[in-house]
Hints:
35% of the residues lie in helices and 19% in strands.
Amino acid sequence: PDSGIIDILGLDPRNNAQALRYQIGSQLQESALPDRLRVWEALDLFASVTPNALDWQILLEQWGLAEKSKSTFASLSGGQRQRLFIALALVNNPRIVFLDEMTTGLDPAARRVAWDLIRSIRDRGATVVLVTHFMDEAEKLCDRLAIVDRGKVVAMDTPQGLITEYASEVRVIFTTDREDISWLDKISNVKKVIRSGPRVEVEGSGSVLALVAASLVENGITPADLRLEQPTLEDVFLKLTGQDIGD
């Protein structure tokens, strides 16, 4: 667009840039600090230049950095640096927070802690703009999602809304040594049958699980590993973009 009006929190960013900076926090995918700067010094510095700053010592505890408070930036691991940058994004108690690949480099336990903290930020009224390639993260944390492909928004809705619109089919999966399973294609609600060795995947909708299970029993097949997989945001992403999430 080459015309129009931008309004953020009721302010024009061209005329109220400084006021907006105090209300916005951001954590970039790649950032750096001076090697000799200590963790507590970085938080104290950021807090000192903004009004209404949070108690940075509480942020140290929340993000698991208390034991590293006197460590230099150069001595931190990748995950610790990531947590520090997230804490720095929150120290000014922002109303809007931009988090770019927030949990990249975090171990599974730290990732779950980060999710809980992001929920707490959202629950106290802040808007969180999260950029992520982790579809499970997007599904659990986001109230509204935009899928971007080659710089364009190709779909926007709630997580469940996107799944319902673009990936409503479920998958029934089981294994069998039976050679001929062509009768599966004739079952009502079955859209596709994919076989790879003993593994069989039946894609369909509605009551396809009950129909497939009944047909298997009727044909003398009782697989112990029969299971149902619900569609996910990953299915939506692949359908809309035609590429793997990591591409």
